[in-house]
């Protein structure tokens, strides 16, 4: 069922509630299982190598299939793609929760990633086509951005609670409850606005194969960096293959009549700048989640539950920055004048967190750093998501939305690999420089902690640098003028060639 283009979607705010629940399910799944991994490993008896694959299987399927999922939403209908994605994600979660061996768990995680790749672009593109009025869309994207940004921290908290007080299987089974609510809402409330589908177009099979293979090689290549190093033959081969495959993908898309990713979507300077800024800032954000989680648990001795609680001020900061600052100012302020200061504020928060020592106070150091990080990222994320789909045809909203998620996935993969390498190298250097032949076991233990914290702090400094770089990219590439009225970005109009948007 489709609604007339001129008729406001009276149930769009109810629809946003269900879209938000589904998005939270997908985002928190990136971290909720991590805390449960040791318990799952003891239960199923898989090796340390396979433990990493529990995370990698999800990341590869999700990152590799995002563009395909976004185009499926455009061709098949966003409501249908959203509903199938939610139901499939729930079924895969049930399979993983019932896993009796390693293969069953890894297969379920890969299926979760595949259905998540269909669900995530459909969710964001539904918002862009349902909310046509600028202020309403800004508010809706602010809520969506807060959920997307805070989902990782919520996953840490929920994963800790479920693992500590229930069973590791519930970190997967809990998705069923989210999915039932989201699927019911999708069926009863969500509708595709008329004229927003790209019916009658053929699927670009060569583009699908090249994009999937290239993105999987890229994400997996950076995943292997963390375990094998930058100089390992498998790492080098994977990264070279990614470059070749993605270059072939771009060449293919410039020739086919119905491309998987129309190059005009990423060719616009402001929109391309938004994708680049999101990817770079995600590197910095992963630095916070990765190393601060280790710091709180290993150095300060927090339990998984208390660690999750410790991240809540950052979640609150993201929600305030996204819904109260970003959403309110986006309709009136040029995106780069929100994104650049937002990223710089987040970098300031990371600069505070980089001061951590083995005896640092959570209240006086960690807390203010987290709040500033959350406020800054929340403020920047909302205009970035708005700009990422601005000016595209409604029929391309799915694949444009998929590019946002792809930017985050690629940034996350690079962030984990690069920052882990930096932290490990810095820790080893500190240990070597401070090791004394006459040291006692107690002194050795203290040195190990000091070296670990030094490595974390060094990596967090690099994270702050990436957020500064994201601010510079946003300021340099994104147009200084405010985007045109909503009618240019997602208004339903004939599927003609995209109107040129300002690029300077």
UniProtKB/TrEMBL annotation:
InterPro entries xref list: EmrB-like, MFS, MFS_dom, MFS_trans_sf, Sugar_transporter_CS
Localization per Swiss-Prot or TrEMBL: Cell membrane
Keyword annotations of the record: Antibiotic resistance, Cell membrane, Membrane, Transmembrane, Transmembrane helix, Transport
A Pfam family per the record: MFS_1
CDD domains assigned: MFS_MMR_MDR_like (cd17321)
Ranges where the Major facilitator superfamily (MFS) profile domain occurs: 15-482
Protein topology in the membrane: Multi-pass membrane protein
Transmembrane spans: 15-40, 52-69, 81-100, 106-129, 141-162, 168-191, 203-222, 234-252, 273-296, 302-321, 333-353, 365-389, 410-430, 459-478
Chief localization: membrane
The protein's name in its UniProt record: MFS transporter
Species this protein is from: Streptomyces yanii
Lineage of producing organism: Bacteria, Bacillati, Actinomycetota, Actinomycetes, Kitasatosporales
């Amino acid at each position: 069922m489709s609604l007339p283009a001129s008729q406001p979607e009276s149930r769009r705010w109810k629809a946003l509630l269900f879209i938000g629940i589904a998005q939270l399910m997908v985002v928190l799944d990136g971290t909720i299982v991590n805390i449960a991994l040791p318990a799952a490993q003891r239960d199923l008896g898989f090796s340390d190598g396979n433990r990493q694959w529990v995370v990698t299987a999800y990341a590869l399927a999700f990152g590799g299939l995002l563009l395909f999922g976004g185009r499926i939403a455009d061709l098949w209908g966003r409501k249908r793609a959203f509903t199938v994605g939610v139901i499939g994600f729930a079924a895969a979660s049930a399979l993983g929760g019932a896993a009796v061996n390693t293969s069953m768990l890894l297969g379920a995680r890969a299926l979760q990633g595949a259905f998540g790749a269909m669900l995530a672009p459909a969710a964001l593109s539904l918002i862009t086509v349902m909310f046509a009025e600028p202020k309403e869309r800004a508010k809706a994207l602010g809520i969506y951005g807060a959920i997307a940004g805070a989902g990782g921290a919520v996953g840490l908290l929920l994963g800790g609670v479920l693992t500590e007080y229930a069973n590791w299987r519930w970190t997967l089974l809990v998705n069923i409850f989210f999915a039932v609510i989201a699927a019911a809402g999708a069926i009863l409330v969500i509708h595709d606005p008329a004229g927003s589908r790209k019916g009658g177009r053929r699927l670009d099979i060569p583009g699908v194969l090249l994009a999937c293979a290239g993105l999987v090689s890229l994400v997996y290549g950076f995943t292997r960096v963390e375990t094998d190093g930058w100089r390992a033959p498998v790492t080098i081969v994977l990264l070279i293959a990614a470059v070749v495959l993605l270059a072939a993908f771009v060449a293919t898309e410039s020739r086919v009549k119905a491309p998987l990713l129309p190059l005009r979507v990423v060719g616009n300077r402001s929109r391309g700048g938004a994708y680049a800024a999101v990817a770079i800032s995600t590197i910095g954000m992963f630095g916070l989640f990765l190393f601060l989680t280790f710091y709180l648990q290993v150095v300060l001795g927090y339990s998984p539950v208390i660690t999750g609680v410790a991240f809540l001020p950052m979640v609150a900061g993201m929600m305030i920055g996204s819904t109260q600052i970003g959403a309110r100012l986006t309709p009136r302020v040029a995106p780069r004048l929100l994104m650049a200061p937002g990223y710089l504020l987040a970098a300031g928060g990371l600069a505070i967190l980089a001061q951590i020592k083995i005896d640092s106070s959570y209240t006086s150091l960690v807390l203010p750093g987290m709040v500033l990080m959350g406020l800054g990222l929340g403020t920047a994320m909302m205009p970035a998501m708005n700009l990422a789909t601005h000016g595209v045809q409604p029929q391309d909203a799915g694949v444009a939305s998929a590019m946002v998620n792809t930017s985050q996935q690629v940034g996350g993969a690079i962030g984990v690999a690069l920052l882990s390498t930096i932290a490990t190298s810095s820790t080893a250097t500190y240990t070597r420089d401070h090791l004394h032949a006459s040291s006692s076991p107690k002194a050795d233990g203290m040195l190990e902690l000091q070296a670990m914290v030094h490595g974390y702090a060094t990596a967090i400094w690099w994270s702050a640098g990436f957020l500064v770089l994201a601010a510079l990219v946003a300021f340099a590439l994104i147009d200084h003028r405010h985007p045109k009225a909503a009618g240019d970005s997602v208004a339903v109009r004939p599927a003609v060639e995209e109107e040129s948007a300002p690029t300077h």
